[in-house]
Design goal:
It holds the Pfam family HTH_Tnp_Tc3_2. There is one protein chain. The chain has twelve helices and three strands, in the order H-H-H-H-H-H-H-H-H-H-E-E-E-H-H. The chain is mainly alpha-helical. Among the domains are: 56 residues; 47 residues, no CATH class. It has a three-stranded antiparallel beta sheet with strand order 1-2-3, with no helix packed on it.
Length: 280
């Protein structure tokens, strides 16, 4: 198929033929078109009223001729209708191309699901998994907002004293969530299209932590039994009893306060008992 000439190419051809002494062969090399195409562009401009002596080049002389064929259904109104249906709410986001084509058909717009797919792809939309996030009640949202506001002006040095931790459950030999692969209908048993499924999967919890500039320890554990939970609680209590005096002494040396609760009580004035007052 010969190269299609652009609007700029046709203007260049007409200008060089009319206002210079270059031949069709030389012009064809400049615009990277065939000699026949160059001659046809200039002849069409003459037929449409172009006069190299008395007139300038206008769009009418070089514009592309109307092409035959079925007009596209991807007009701006149809595109906006499809995009608005998808972006309307969560249910619109989940609709298939066939669903959207069916709705448009009921509205008098005959369009195929493949054309709908093309429009969505051109708009930058992809069929992907929805983003998951934890559900929050109004109380939980308020508590999180209050926490953020309370720590809004913390310095880097203060954040360095914080340990961030999280945990997640892991299932061996199992992949969470649905996923898709691209294949033709006759390739179902191709090695790259098969995913093994094993019996006896194992589930455990993974816990990890980190600070501002260091990685903390991590731990994997299986579901605890009642005995293991009691032993863990006893171990934590023993550890607290062991390190609490050391940390308390260190805190008192750094702050200079030995008993903040005692100081708070002493700083408050003692109420007077009027019943004990006697007249002299």
């Amino acid at each position: 198929m010969p190269k299609q000439s652009t609007h700029a190419d046709r203007v260049t051809v007409v200008a060089l033929r009319a206002y210079t002494t270059k031949t069709s062969s030389e012009i064809a090399k400049i615009v990277d078109l065939s000699i026949a195409t160059v001659n046809r562009i200039y002849a069409r401009a003459i037929e449409r009223g172009f006069d190299p002596i008395h007139t300038k080049i206008i769009d009418e002389y070089v514009q592309d001729s109307p092409r035959s064929g079925r007009p596209t259904k991807q007009d701006p109104q149809t595109i906006n209708t499809i995009l608005s249906k998808v972006r309307l709410d969560r249910f619109g986001r989940e609709k298939t191309c066939a669903d959207l084509a069916g709705e448009l058909s009921q509205e008098g717009i005959e369009i195929s699901s493949s054309t709908v797919w093309t429009i969505l792809r051109k708009a930058g939309l992809r069929k992907t998994k929805p983003t998951r996030k934890p559900g929050l009640t109004k109380k939980m949202r308020a508590e999180r907002l209050a926490w953020c506001l309370a720590h809004e002006h913390w310095t880097i040095e203060e954040w360095k004293n914080v340990i961030f931790s999280d945990e997640t459950s892991v299932i061996l030999l199992h992949r969470r969530g649905g996923y898709r692969i691209w294949r033709s209908k006759d390739k179902a048993f191709l090695r790259s299209c098969i995913r093994e499924r094993w019996k006896g999967s194992s589930e455990f919890m993974f816990w990890g932590c980190f600070t501002y500039d260091k990685k903390g320890p991590c731990h994997c554990w299986c579901p605890e039994t009642a005995i293991q939970k009691r032993e863990a609680e006893q171990e934590i209590e023993a550890l607290n009893r062991e390190i609490e005096p050391i940390l308390r002494e260190q805190w008192e040396l750094e702050t200079g306060v030995t008993d903040p609760l005692r100081l708070k009580k002493i700083s408050q004035p003692r109420p007077t008992d009027l019943s004990r007052l006697t007249h002299t």
